[in-house]
DNA sequence: AACACGATGAAGGATTGA
DNA sequence: TCAATCCTTCATCGTGTT
């Protein structure tokens, strides 16, 4: 195992006994100080290697630190592709003497199914580990992680469990499968087991934290595989190296200028591979996705990747302007479905640039009627008489979670007051900039103000006072609304469900917030049979619950506070009760993706935004269960 | 609840150079 | 003339402290 580059030997800490697994006192200490121990390793390795994050990335992929350091030394830090190739060559040569089972084991450990690996090895030959990985990543990885129909029989969680087990059995063949599958397998044992089969302790701990204490080994390995895929993605598809999406119709070849980029970025620019396709994901302009109700330009046909074809239907949402590479990664996880980027300014008076990954049909969409007001002046007619000619806005910017405070509006008043008629250009510019930044509207002479919560509700397509009461204060309301769907936009996409589910729909709503999905479906006239709503905020759950009662819903609403509580068992119980879900819908937190976050815009690895992987995990579980 | 707190990256016009 | 590069403008489901 070590020869294959799978981390340090932990066999000292793990002993098999007749009772299954017993843990020596040594290992308890190690695990209790897991973080510290890991930290120490990192420090010592970073002394050898100049770039510890690069090292971590490859170590995370399962190569040993020693090999990674050597590969980086050989190739320099700049080209992660070359480093990866070298690493693969190293491991190919070390495993060449043994059977190819170790090679297979390594790829299986990286999260690919045994079947897929065998196929890829057969296709590329044993010696060609780089092309095997390429094949696996490019064509098969996602199918493995989220089995398509043709693989449903062989490529399941039990498959994971089985292949992982084979590795485990190698360690000590006296152990018995039943003992490992014992539901009483405690947390420590699970952690040890995961590290033993080659996962990093940090990955395993994270998985256990995310998947919850009752999660099975299969769920845990699935989560880790998902995270590793993200890392592999980063390594194989560097930022400039992203394939374009086909709805990127306004794609223009661009390169960053170097005038204000740091050294790091400059290095990336220099790192041009031969035959490098300088392709990047660009947002469509205009940002209208497959079409909007008011524009004749419509796309009504698309070919979904086979792995994405339902059931259930899924609909995932997040901010369009995420850090580079994030949408590529999310798309790769969600069965290679291309995101549909839509700006809600085509549906209402406020911009809201969002990407949606879904497998819904796109023909015969219908908008909610009546159309909401589509300019600021239509939405807020009373502001018209105060609106200066030099404030040329007709649409508001994105409605965010924070609003301007009194000091902003007061500084505007003070800037304007000395001028009887048109203020000088510099003042106009200052005021205009503040108004745009904070989405201010004119409510009097020299007087601007942020929108009221009920005005935001209206713009986003919610009923008046939707977020009012039930313990929600003003701040809560802004926050919940800022994090919500724009109902008209989402409803337009969901409208195709109306004819498909005339007798009602079962919905799994993840990160429900204030119930944008539920409201959209209700307004479309799609009966809500059973809705399982997962939402961490109690205030939001109360809002959805009271809306549910106010609108006299006849179906069942089930609240779950935490996505991480939603494991296989829980899902199975829910699904056997309802007969499965027709739609899995949700937008995971954008905190670490949103441009306004100056402190922790950490991408998909960020604390909150990594919950995307829970969306993926749960969707994948539902899909698998519904295929069996 | 008020307040202070930049960075990232898209877009597009202007300039440069072959 | 065209394409690459330079440079400016703009938007952004936010966080931490008081």
TrEMBL record:
It is found in: Nucleus. Pfam families: DNA_methylase. Keywords: DNA-binding, Methyltransferase, Nucleus, Repeat, S-adenosyl-L-methionine, Transferase. Residues 300-628 form the SAM-dependent MTase DRM-type domain. GO terms for cellular component: nucleus. Belongs to the class I-like SAM-binding methyltransferase superfamily. C5-methyltransferase family. This is DNA (cytosine-5-)-methyltransferase.
